[in-house]
Amino acid sequence: MRVRATESEMISRRLVTLLVILSCLSMPFPADAQQVKRVYRVGVLETISLVLNAANFDAFRHGLRALGYIEGQNLVIEYRSADGDASRFPALATELVRLQVDVLVTRGTPAALAAKNAAGSIPVVMAAIGDPLGLGIVANLARPGGNVTGLNAFATELSGKRVELLREMLPGIKRIAALLNMGNPLFPPQWKEIETAARSLGIEPQLLDVRKSEEIGPLFDAAIISRADALVVGPDGVTQASLQSITELATKHRLPTMYPSREFVDAGGLSSYGVSYPHLYYRAAGFVDKIFRGAKPGDLPVEQPIKLELVINLKTAKALGLTIPPTLLFQADEVIR
């Protein structure tokens, strides 16, 4: 015989059922049922060590953090440096590709070329490069095509201006030397710019072709023997990796020098004129973010620098026995006293 449950019993059963449901909802899901948080992997192909590149790389990290990418949480950065030896780039690029990075970030022409050749379908972001269009790394600045985009550092266009600034600093100079790595495809056009600017001012240009760091000392000796009055230095892995020895030799030989970036001035160099590399690196993080969100690198225009800076170190000027013209100090974005 079947007995009908009382109303109170039915209410009790419903309460028990509700408690069971609530208990189940509060229990943690199995790990495989939880949403897995995406971890992005960035491969960085650099000309110099992390120690020497600290200011630029910190700016890149800051840019990524501002966009929500935090190392140890949703971001892994694999940093590889050629330490001034461009021949190492192809192997380093291949190593990063094998790590299955989501994007490659580069600085300089040799690194960008190596990344482009090794990347396959992996996007490449150039944090800074001298002439991406002229060297065939991108097909078009507005629509690069392929898998490479990033930021132009105007290295070639600014090389002649450095000669003009040195002339303004030293009106009587007759001979100017240029420390350039002619093995880097960026520098033959830069040398032409320097030659043209120098000769237009009645100055004799002298090429100091540096391929290895051990050549720097003898090349300084050659500049002194030929009575060079001043020196311009090109932006390259060899010179960047040797910035401390270059600035020390320039002071030792009392050779006024114009460098391509302020990192040389921070190391004791006299003056620099060029793009703000930390600013470029910060902006490179924006390219990485857009790619992570689904943008194709070939559709992202190569951006131009919007911040150029002239930096002058008066401490070094004093050590060289120089008086910097007030007009040039007025032009400077920063004067180190």
What does this structure look like?
This protein is of the alpha/beta class and 337 residues long. Helices cover 42% and strands 19% of the residues. 45% of the residues are buried. Helix 2 runs parallel beside helix 11. It folds into 2 domains: 147 residues, Rossmann fold (3-Layer(aba) Sandwich), CATH 3.40.50.2300; 148 residues, Response regulator (Rossmann fold). Strand 1, helix 2 and strand 2 form a beta-alpha-beta unit.
CATH architecture assignment name of the largest domain? 3-Layer(aba) Sandwich
Cα end-to-end separation: 104 Å
General form: elongated
Cross-sheet strand order for the largest sheet: 7-6-8-9-10-11-12
CATH topology of the largest domain: Rossmann fold
Helix amount: 40-55%
Largest sheet: 7 strands, mixed
Report the count of strand segments. 12
List the helices and strands and how they pair.
Blueprint: H1 7-26, E1 40-46, H2 54-66, E2 75-81, H3 89-98, E3 103-107, H4 109-119, E4 124-129, E5 148-152, H5 155-169, E6 175-180, H6 187-200, E7 204-209, H7 216-225, E8 230-233, H8 237-241, H9 243-252, E9 257-259, H10 262-266, E10 271-275, H11 277-292, E11 308-313, H12 314-320, H13 326-331, E12 334-336
Parallel strand pairs: 1-2, 1-3, 3-4, 4-5, 6-7, 6-8, 8-9, 9-10, 11-12
Antiparallel strand pairs: 10-11
Helix pairs in contact: 2-11, 3-4, 5-6
